[in-house]
């Protein structure tokens, strides 16, 4: 039974997913439907966490919009996510950056990883 489920999940996975990690600054190109029209909206921010695995894997991105923190969670393999573009790599030492929620301005920055 679980073999069949794995095969079905494998079919639904995206083939080309950009490599990104927690702490990276990314641009997420998300499809939005408004009535009968469809457009792409860009959401740029820091990846706070990645959860799950396989077809259910999700990631959360946080940005500051007019001084207010905004977080959005997307499934990595969703057809509504057009693409994920990494702008800069972050140097972090933990898997989830929940501490950034209580910080504003320069304190909410993540150091850039030099590679």
Automatic annotation (TrEMBL):
The record's GO molecular-function terms, alphabetically, read:
structural constituent of ribosome
Give the superkingdom in one word: Bacteria
Task: Provide the Gene Ontology terms for cellular component.
Answer: cytosolic large ribosomal subunit
* Coiled coil start-end: none
The record, for SUPFAM superfamilies, names: Translation proteins SH3-like domain
Q: Does the keyword Ribonucleoprotein apply?
A: yes
**Entry keywords, A to Z:** Ribonucleoprotein, Ribosomal protein
BP GO annotations: translation
Family matches, as Pfam families: Ribosomal_L19
Q: Which NCBIfam families match?
A: rplS_bact
Report the function annotation for this chain. Answer: This protein is located at the 30S-50S ribosomal subunit interface and may play a role in the structure and function of the aminoacyl-tRNA binding site.
Q: Which family does it belong to?
A: Belongs to the bacterial ribosomal protein bL19 family.
> HAMAP family from the xrefs?
Ribosomal_bL19
The protein's name is Large ribosomal subunit protein bL19
Q: Which organism is it from?
A: Acetatifactor muris
């Amino acid at each position: 039974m679980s073999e069949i489920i794995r095969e079905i999940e494998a079919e639904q996975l995206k083939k080309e997913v950009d490599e990104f990690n927690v702490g990276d600054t990314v641009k997420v190109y998300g499809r939005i439907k408004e009535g009968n029209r469809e457009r792409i909206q860009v959401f740029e921010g820091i990846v706070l966490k990645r959860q799950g695995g396989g077809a259910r894997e999700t990631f959360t991105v946080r940005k500051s919009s007019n001084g207010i923190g905004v977080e959005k969670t997307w499934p990595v393999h969703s057809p509504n996510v057009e693409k994920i573009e990494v702008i800069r790599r972050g140097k972090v030492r933990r898997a989830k950056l929940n501490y950034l929620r209580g910080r504003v301005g320069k304190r909410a920055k993540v150091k850039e990883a030099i590679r």
